[in-house]
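We were asked to recover a plausible sequence for a given structure. The inputs and outputs are reproduced exactly as logged, with field labels preserved.

PROBLEM: sequence recovery
POSITIONS: 472
GIVEN STRUCTURE:
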């Protein structure tokens, strides 16, 4: 039976409940009275249930869809403002013993070049990322108990945090690795990670097991229950997501929201982030093999409805998506983007050759970081390299309470402007610097708290004079 508080995967992601939800939403997709009532109620920024959210996603009434997009934009603006956080992935190793049929890291792939960075190579990669202006990384590895040990990962995190190059520093390391034990999660917490990220790929148990035919990832329950163990291990912030295109998107959309509801019900805190990747080309993977791909219109609607249903969460879109696609979903829900990403092992310090191919997937948005920052500024956003909440202990339920109360902007707005100023002073092109200074001048008066506004203005002057790393 469905139980959002249960710690058993097949009970908090219960197939019967999902199928019932699919039927209910299909039956009510043109129920204008119900849809209007859901849109009206969601204006309080307290979210919707998975069943209510799917009704909105299924809605086939054009005027109601316009209302949804308008509401998603308003909720994002109210809770997250114009800030867009920027990060980059760092691939440490692509050794993997799993048989995932959609990922080129699968153990049977003999064409991909297997690599694992040494600590010296990690230093070179991090310096290259710092020289772009990055302050926040997401570590990626395949699952391999021999090559990718917890000890290797912990040593790598320590190395990354230790590197101070010119004015650069990585201030937050998020980790995207395979499901592991409570004891290992405790070690990651002690190492000072930010968010622990793990994508479900699909919540349909049968499809999941078919897509992961061999290796430890085949265990649906162990994988799906990982976030509970991570939080039991003391990790406050977790990030969930599915790989849209593997399974029917409606099923995974419901499963994703049920997982968010479960974390709130059972662990007291919902997901810090939700990612929405779509399957794309990779070494020996043809996305056309998978028949459940979704259009750009459906993708944008998914993002908008997630923002309405789970208003407090950060939403991430990666360089899998094109500039056009990213621009569209930024408006209706996305609050974090990757920039100048490389999905190869060791691809930042030295450009990868065809013979040395180690990438996980092809990047669609190939622009440099300065181009990304310039683009965001031109769209009216505030590119943010902020890591203050993590470093000040505003994580888990403390962070969520501030977001839900609409108070997080008191910290995030000035922090975003100050980290943008750092970027402009140290890394920006002339055009980006000009645009950025205009945005900072325009946005400083929008900091509501007079005292914080005055302190932020003073810190901006100090940043111009060479000082670094201020935060609220």
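RECOVERED SEQUENCE:
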């Amino acid at each position: 039976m469905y139980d959002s508080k249960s710690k058993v995967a097949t009970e908090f992601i219960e197939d019967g409940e999902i199928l019932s939800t699919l039927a209910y939403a299909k039956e009510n997709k043109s129920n204008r009275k119900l849809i209007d009532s859901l849109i009206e109620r969601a204006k309080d920024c307290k979210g919707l249930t998975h069943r209510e959210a799917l009704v909105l996603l299924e809605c086939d009434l054009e005027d109601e869809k316009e209302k949804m997009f308008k509401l998603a934009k308003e909720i994002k603006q109210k809770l997250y403002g114009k800030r867009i956080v920027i990060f980059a992935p760092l691939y440490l190793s692509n050794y993997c013993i799993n048989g995932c049929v959609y990922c080129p890291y699968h153990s049977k792939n003999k064409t991909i070049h297997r690599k694992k960075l040494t600590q010296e190579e990690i230093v070179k990669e991090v310096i290259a990322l710092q020289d772009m202006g990055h302050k926040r990384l997401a570590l990626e590895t395949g699952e391999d108990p021999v090559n990718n040990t917890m000890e290797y990962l912990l040593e790598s995190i320590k190395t990354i945090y230790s590197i101070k190059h010119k004015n650069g520093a990585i201030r937050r390391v998020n980790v995207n690795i395979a499901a592991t034990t409570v004891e290992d999660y405790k070690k990651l917490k002690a190492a000072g990670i930010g968010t622990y990220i793990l994508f479900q790929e699909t919540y349909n148990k049968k499809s999941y097991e078919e897509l992961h035919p061999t290796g430890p990832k085949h265990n649906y329950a162990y994988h799906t229950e990982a976030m509970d163990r991570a939080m039991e291990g003391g990790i406050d912030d977790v990030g969930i997501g599915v790989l849209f295109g593997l399974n029917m998107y409606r099923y995974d959309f419901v499963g994703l929201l049920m997982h968010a509801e479960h974390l709130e019900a059972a662990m007291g805190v919902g997901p810090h982030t939700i990612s929405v990747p779509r399957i794309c080309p990779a070494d020996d993977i043809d996305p056309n093999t998978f028949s459940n791909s979704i259009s750009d219109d459906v993708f944008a609607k998914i993002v908008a409805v997630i923002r309405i249903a789970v208003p407090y969460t950060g939403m991430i879109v990666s360089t899998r998506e094109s500039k056009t696609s990213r621009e569209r979903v930024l408006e209706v829900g996305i609050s974090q983007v990757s920039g100048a990403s490389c999905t190869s092992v060791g691809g930042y310090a030295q450009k990868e050759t065809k013979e040395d191919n180690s990438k996980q997937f092809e990047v669609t948005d190939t622009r440099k970081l300065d181009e990304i920052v310039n683009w965001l500024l031109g769209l009216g956003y505030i590119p943010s390299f902020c890591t203050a909440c993590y470093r000040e202990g505003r994580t888990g339920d403390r962070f969520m309470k501030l977001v839900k109360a609409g108070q997080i902007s008191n910290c995030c707005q000035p922090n975003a402007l100050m980290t943008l100023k750092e970027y402009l002073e140290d890394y920006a092109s002339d055009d980006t610097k000009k645009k950025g200074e205009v945005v900072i001048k325009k946005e400083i008066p929008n900091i509501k708290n007079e005292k914080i506004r005055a302190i932020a203005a003073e810190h901006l002057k100090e940043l111009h004079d060479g000082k670094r790393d201020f935060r609220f």
